[in-house]
Amino acid sequence: MRFRLKLFSLHLLSSATVLTLVLGGLYFGWYRWPGWYLTDVTRVIVVMVCVDVVLGPTLTLIIANQTKSRRVLARDIGIIVAIQLCALSYGSVQLWNGRPLYYAFSEKILQLVQAYDIDANEAKLGREQNPTLAPHWYSLPRWIWAPLPQDWETRKKIVTSAITGGDDVISMPRYFKPWNEGLPSLRSQLKKVDNVAYFAKSEKKKLKDKMKAAGMADDQLDTMPLTGRGHPLLAVIDPASLKITAVLTAK
Question: What is the per-residue pLDDT across 16-60, written as a single tens digit (0 to 9) for each?
Fold first, then answer.
């Protein structure tokens, strides 16, 4: 039993270390708050943890037997590790492809833009026409303004595409502009909590309670929804400086 526990402990420590390094790198590089919440990647993380930290070491505990030859034992553990690496690779690729690249203010809301929201052609056009704000493989999340273009025909095409489920302006880096340039437009779209869409009445009450507890007024024009694939958040923005002072969940 001592032999089994020793192999189990070594396997668990190794698996946990590798998974921590992978998830830690992705988190601190791209998924830090509010990215992790808005991308709603809980299922992917659960699969990775279950296979790499729970299932793998547990199988080693079961199959480890001191009476086995070293060759057979190495083969068995090798098969387990191979399965773990497949799960780790799958999860890592999914997280990489869905990493947050932008937090975009567009029209009336703030929206998360993930890597797979921008196709290869749009990324190429962005690098050619707007290199400063175009995405690269090493790009970290940025706050940007994504206004619709002034040209009416182009504007109409983008709106029609968005309505029918196609690309929206937030997935077209060639139209992105610096965050500061969009602040006057952002100011005009700030609302009181009670008038913000995306939240139920009960959720708005929770948000107002959180604002009061943090010493913030809940009856000013200082909020805007921040949306992604997960449940939306509420961004509280100082009306004077237009700096984001808090990002709150409705839970």
Answer: 999 999 999 999 999 999 999 999 888 889 989 999 999 999 998
Same domain flag for 226 and 144: no
Contact (CB, 8 A) for 43 and 94: no
Contact assessment for residue 172 and residue 164, using Cβ atoms and an 8 Å cutoff = no
Among 177, 230, 232, 237, residue whose Cα is nearest residue 200:
232
- What are the Cα distances from residue 248, in Å, to 10, 100, 188, 231? 40, 18, 21, 11
| 22 and 91 together in one domain | yes
Domain boundary among 188, 208, 240: 188
185-234 pLDDT tens trace = 999 999 999 999 899 999 999 999 999 999 998 889 999 999 999 899 99
Residues 6+ positions from 124 with CB-CB distance below 8 Å: none
Q: Using pLDDT thresholds of 50, 70 and 90, give the confidence band for residue 65.
A: confident
Enclosing domain of residue 61: 2-97
**Of 227, 225, 251, whose CA–CA distance to 237 is shortest?**
225
The residue out of 97, 122, 138 marking a domain boundary is: 97
**pTM score, whole prediction:** 0.89
Give residue for tokens 């037997």: 65
Contacts of 4 (CB under 8 A, 6+ apart): 61, 64, 65
The reply to whether 173 and 230 lie within a common domain is no
Number of domains in the chain: 3
